[in-house]
Amino acid sequence: MAFRERSAWVMGCTLVLVGGFYLKLVIGDGVPPSSAAIPFVLGAVVLSIAAQIVLAVASPREASSPVDERERVVIEKAAHFSSYVLATGVVVGLGAFMLSQDGMRLFHIVLTSLILGQLAEYGAQIFLLRSRV
User: Fold this and answer.
1) pLDDT digits over 98-117, tens only?
2) Which of 1, 2, 17, 93 has the lowest CB atom count within 10 Å?
3) pTM as predicted
């Protein structure tokens, strides 16, 4: 498995783990979203940095190598695909806000679309790297 693919797997799993923790805080424990956002962001940043350090230590040559042309195309295609997921979520959130004037609902829809957009990007990277595009 290539370094970029391992990185996408780790980042996707990190995002699912931290996103699940956020949902547990907000839905399960009843913590206000403004209070739960801080541990969500800090957890995502700390876990992402720690995971990337572990990956870099495990394979330093791959980690320090520049992105090759095929990987660049994969990264661009994955980002392009994920932008549709993000944009769809934002449009849905804005539509829901126009109907209900509920700012907290807008916040959750946009946050969910950010998470889903990133997961779509990591998933597309994994798929495209494996399909040798």
Assistant:
1) 999 998 889 889 988 999 99
2) 1
3) 0.86
